[in-house]
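Quick one: structure for this chain?
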Amino acid sequence: MDIREQHPDLAEWNALIERCLADPDPEPITNLDPGDERPYDAVFVGGGAGGRFGAAYLRAMGGRPLIVDAWPFLGGSCPHQACVPHHLFSEAAAELDRMRWFSDELYFPKFDPSRAGIKDLVDLFVAGRSSAHAFMNWQTKEQLDVEYVLNARASLVDPTTVRVAGRTFRARNLVLGTGARPVVPDVPGIRRPGVHDFISLVESLDAEPARCVVIGGSKVAMEYGSFFHATGCPTTMVSRSPVMRSSSLHHVDEDLRRYVVDGMRRRGMEILEGAEPVTVEGVGADGPVTGVTVRLADGSTRRLEADMVFLGLGERPDTTEARAVLGIEVDDRGRVVTDRRMRTSVPGVYAIGDMIAGAMEMWKARKSGVTAARNIMGEELEFDVSEYPDFLHTTYEVSWVGLTEQEARDTRDDVVVIQMPPYVEGLDTEHLPLPCAEGSMLYAFRRPELSGFQKLVVDGTTRQVLGAHHCGYGAKDAFQYLDHLIHRPEGLTIDELGWMNELFLNPEHFVQLSRLRAGKGRLTHL
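Got it. Here's what it folds into:
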């Protein structure tokens, strides 16, 4: 289907995407410019966040990119199966949490758990997810002027050549961005109906679960487990390591971790740390799930009743073809090895997004795609993926950036902590309605122990802010700017932070409290 001279609107794109997804014999969707006879500067294999942004940037610099994707849409897994549904589910979890705590109080009606359902939210998402893809297909063609072949899988031929839908395309460079897939552990019964990861949850959930076991202590495990439990589905988490201590999460302050995990338990979730699954049991040899037997930290075993098991154990890219055809180097976790310019071990071949080391986040995908594009077009640009702000959702937003208190104490002689609520011996701070800010006002006045937590870590000698850690609402926007300020060559001092004009956002307490302390020549804790 050649759409180069067609101009579908959003509704038409939406209908075309849905039709292609339902078609067992897909037809390629091509947007190729026959009037441009220049060679391609790069073929982006994968049109997710990294491929789309990288191709658009390369095109804006005057180059000629081509995107190839097996799906009939651009944008990749984020709006289709990953981050967008996770944000929808987390928003629902936060609302349900508030409705439960204030059931039949103030203006809240008595909470009816029968009206909250996992499947209802999944169905809501699936019904509307193609709208984002429709816009990206339209924008990439009509506004960004990027060529693409969709609904057709690329086969790698060599470092400059791919075959797609019977056609051969050559370019000066290849950019690999085909994403990653959830890890499935080698546990008997793990393939039974009722065992889901974040992909199969939205693609094949066909009944409302009554009880769930989440395997893993990762960000995904915490977020989806909190959502399941908030809807009224009793949820148990099974994690080998302490929750929120997985290898994919860095710079997590212990006080923040305790507040978050204790809050999950306060809401009724059972969290088994130091535990691992032994078998997933069910009806017959391969019938639906009925429970999970786990080995606990003390070596004993326990059977957990469940009709749904959710896997939150991270993701791994599939590099089989790239290794076999191109011979690219991968690390011990199966990720493609690149330098800071996104160059692989094979000249002219780049890798981006979830295929490379670092956080499985949209910002990394987009920036790595742009980094590859700018280097292809002659810039000598490096992108360090090792330092970044991070967040997760439970029924709160949890955000952090920079060093933890312990990391700071390991490397600095004088560390000052500014924290809310404070830990002061003999002071009943569990009843202190602070931090009292946007999104947590009702909690502050009615359930003060639920109003949130925040900590600022400062170097007492240089007065530089080293890290910020927050649990509440409304902080994510501020933390992306805090990240930039903290990691500037000159850093960010407590004096500068205390002199900012604060707005009524949850992290404004960092500004207020810094202002209370910035007048001291020698900083002290607050």
